[in-house]
Design brief:
The chain is of the alpha/beta class. It contains 11 helices and 9 strands. It is globular. The structure holds coenzyme A.
């Protein structure tokens, strides 16, 4: 388990809290593994009805750790969190996310797997995959156009446009914008309301709305194969080094 992911329970609601604020909750291999394990065990546990993902005040998740990407490009193990992505697809219970700050890369794309998303006015959603020499991941190349329509998915996933809380809500990715100080309690109220619904009914309804996971898993595998190639490309290596030297940051 990673100390950078805190796991707690309130009634039938499992809470996964990213806790690496010094790096804006960028995800390491250990964090991906902890998230995968937590989601899988919540899925298998009859006492859990709903899972909620929180970040920290002012930072939801800065995406994959770019130092890990750079290490992978130089021959290190590739960290792409596939076990976590698989756990997201296989999760058969409602998922809620609440973001009170930047949600970059997987910080945004995990929202496509959620059933409800709440953000504060200081949330900014961005997926600078192409600017990093990479491709969209976490099934977002399939779910993005489905949820947003092609034009808006392209704007987010290819152009890398940073979206404000308002834009994300207007695009249909976010349920509600809530003041920072009320964000977690609003998300927990929604989770509690969901947990009180007939469990099997909620599970079946969610599955119908989400559709067949097989095509999503297949797309994730395709994205992952491309990512593994792209992470070593000269375009990507230059972008990772520039980020870590602070010379080229996405303008959020
Ligand atoms: N990987 C590794 N380190 C990261 C990181 C990431 N994805 N995101 C942030 N950090 C680190 C920064 O390098 C910095 O470390 P330092 O204090 O040791 O220099 C620290 O977290 C704080 O980040 P900083 O950029 O100073 O904070 P900010 O508030 O100005 O900006 C973000 C926050 C999230 C907008 C910005 O950090 C960012 O754009 N991060 C990269 C996001 C990204 O491209 N992720 C990959 C997507 S596939």
């Amino acid at each position: 388990m990673s100390g950078h992911v805190e796991i707690s329970r309130e009634g039938a609601v499992e809470i996964l809290r990213l806790n690496r604020p010094e790096k804006k909750n960028a995800l390491t291999a250990a964090m991906y593994a902890a998230l995968a394990e937590a989601l899988n065990s919540a899925n298998a546990n009859d006492e859990v009805a709903v899972t909620v993902i929180f970040g920290q005040p002012g930072a939801f998740c800065a995406g994959n750790d770019i130092a890990d990407f750079l290490a992978a490009s130089q021959g290190g193990a590739i960290v792409h969190g596939f076990a976590f992505l698989k756990a997201l697809v296989e999760c058969d219970k409602p998922l809620i996310a609440a973001a009170d700050g930047p949600a970059v890369g997987i910080g945004t794309t995990l929202m496509f797997h959620c059933d409800m998303v709440f953000v504060s006015p200081r949330a900014v959603l961005q997926t600078p995959f192409v600017d990093l020499g990479l491709v969209p991941e976490a099934g977002s190349s399939l779910l993005g156009p489905r949820v947003l329509g092609h034009a808006r998915a392209f704007e987010l996933l290819v152009m890398g446009a940073p979206w404000s809380a308002e834009q994300a809500k207007e695009a249909g990715l976010v349920n509600a914008i809530v003041p920072s100080e009320e964000l977690e309690s609003v998300a927990l109220e929604a989770a509690d309301a969901l947990a009180k619904k007939p469990r099997e009914g909620a599970r079946l309804a969610r599955r119908l709305l989400k559709g067949d996971p097989a095509s999503l898993k297949k797309r994730m595998e395709e994205e992952c194969a491309l990512l593994i190639e792209r992470v070593k490309s000269s375009e990507a290596v230059a972008a990772f080094a520039a980020f870590l030297k602070k010379s080229a940051r996405p303008a959020l």
